[in-house]
Amino acid sequence: MTSPLLFVALLMLLLLAGVWTVMTLNLLKSAIGLAITSVLLTLLLFLLDAPLAGVFELSVCAGLITVVFISAISLTKPLTGPEASERDRSRVKRFFFLPILIAGAAWVLYALGLRLDSPLPPAIAEMDVRQVLWNVRRLDLVGQILIILAGVFGVVILFKDRSDKKEAPKS
Prior knowledge:
- Helix content is 77%, strand content 0%.
- The protein contains seven helices and no strands.
- 9% of the residues are buried.
């Protein structure tokens, strides 16, 4: 039996790593923060007796996605000081509503009584992995799909922004 204090400590570290990942302005530091976040999530998954999910998280998110992000970052040109500050100002203006939206969505899910921590049936140990993934743990698959899509769209947007700036006529 694992100590609840260990779970709380890992969850707090996971939260801190996730916030640092999304709040840092350096893309390379963000990619490294994502890898750290994924490793902490992997530890939690192993402690929760979900070794298959932990292996997927470690190999795909902490490994493959981090390598893809660092490769994409290495292909980009860093912004100068004025360009970076202008980007930061426009980013704050565009995304000021996101914390409110996330808090509202969390409140709606809480108000609806949607429980995401439903216990697994005891017979799950005898089930085939395919049955567990597709029939019992569908919400986990949705989360993994959303994480992969967020990574793909992030890389696409990064390259689209760079190609738009290169194609813009200079006057």
